[in-house]
TrEMBL record:
Its EC number is 1.11.1.27. It catalyses: a hydroperoxide + 2 glutathione = an alcohol + glutathione disulfide + H2O. Belongs to the peroxiredoxin family. Prx5 subfamily. Gene3D superfamilies: Glutaredoxin (3.40.30.10). Coiled coil: none annotated. This is Glutathione-dependent peroxiredoxin. PANTHER family: PEROXIREDOXIN, PEROXIREDOXIN-5, MITOCHONDRIAL. Residues 3-167 form the Thioredoxin domain. It is an enzyme of class 1 (oxidoreductase). It comes from Limnobacter humi. It comes from the Bacteria. Thiol-specific peroxidase that catalyzes the reduction of hydrogen peroxide and organic hydroperoxides to water and alcohols, respectively. Plays a role in cell protection against oxidative stress by detoxifying peroxides. Keywords: Antioxidant, Oxidoreductase, Peroxidase, Redox-active center. InterPro entries: PRX5-like (IPR037944), Redoxin (IPR013740), Thioredoxin-like_sf (IPR036249), Thioredoxin_domain (IPR013766).
Length: 167
């Protein structure tokens, strides 16, 4: 069953690559527990099937980067982009997209987080393996406030603009 409003984020590990060593973190990949990272924060999460894929690169991630300041003005402490890719791919994609300081690029390489929240999407017949469904989510202090899920093959519900309108 997919995660819903009122549910707590599960304890699971995601990874982040840094292009510069800061705050005691090495370049990476650095492991972070989702529950601990969300504690005491308001977090907007966007999840997508894969880094460098057409819709994800042209529309989904760019919308959140473009509107990062507006999210912060409306009380969002961090924006996380989660994908079933490794931290090196997420780091390179984030650098190319200009995400630094705006969106944290979090790798869920083994789909641990994605599976625990029931958002996996089996694309093995298309040569992509298990991926994440496309969604956006608002989380306050580790508790899901709302989830915007897109049906497979669409991009309507999980846009940055829609999530902003719900804040």
């Amino acid at each position: 069953m997919a995660i819903q409003a009122g549910d707590k984020l599960p304890s699971s590990t995601v990874y982040e690559f840094f292009h510069e060593e800061t705050g005691g973190c090495s370049l990476g990949p650095n492991a972070f527990d989702v529950q601990k990272e969300a504690a005491g924060k308001t977090v907007a999460i966007l999840a997508l099937p894969g880094a460098y894929t057409p819709t994800c690169s042209a529309k989904h991630l760019p919308g959140f980067i473009q509107h990062a300041a507006e999210f912060r003005q409306r009380g969002v402490d961090e924006i996380w982009c989660v994908s079933v890719n490794d931290a090196f791919v997420m780091g390179a994609w984030g650098k190319e997209q200009g995400a630094a300081g705006k969106v944290r690029m979090l790798a869920d390489g083994a789909a641990e987080f994605t599976r625990k929240i029931g958002m996996e999407l089996d694309l093995t017949t298309r040569g992509m393996g298990v991926r994440s469904q496309r969604y956006s989510m608002l989380v306050k202090d580790g508790v899901v406030q709302l989830v915007n899920l897109d049906p497979p093959g669409t991009f309507e519900n999980s846009t940055a603009e829609k999530l902003l309108s719900q804040l």
